[in-house]
Amino acid sequence: MESKRKLIFICQGSDCKKSGSKSLNKKIKEEINSKGLKGQFKLIKTKCMDCCKSAPVVIIGEYFCKKATFEKVISQIKKS
Ligand code: FES
To answer: Where are the alpha helices (DSSP H) in the chain?
Structure first.
């Protein structure tokens, strides 16, 4: 059975944490909940994805977001 929810992977490794991935995770979660998108997206915290130079790293579906910001992630979520 295929899931209809789109997966969002957010790195919580040490370099990404230093670059603010923890607060980014919180903001994305709040945005998804406030916009009523809870059933459509699943936020998954990961360990280091080995792209630390691009921290913070977020993957939305098939889109790999380097040096992710809240705005970049939200605009990608809207496109999905
Ligand atoms: S800590 Fe996030 S990619 Fe390494």
So the answer is: 14-18, 21-34, 70-79
- Closest protein CA for atom 1 of ligand 1: 13
* 15 touches ligand 1 (CB under 6 Å): yes
Q: Each residue of 18-36: pLDDT tens digit? A: 999 999 999 999 999 999 8
Report the separation in Å between the CA atom of 32 and the middle of ligand 1, taken as the mean of its atom positions. 23
In the chain the domains, ranked by start, together with CATH numbers, are 6-79 (3.40.30.10)
pLDDT at 45 over 80: yes
What pTM was estimated for this model as a whole?
0.92
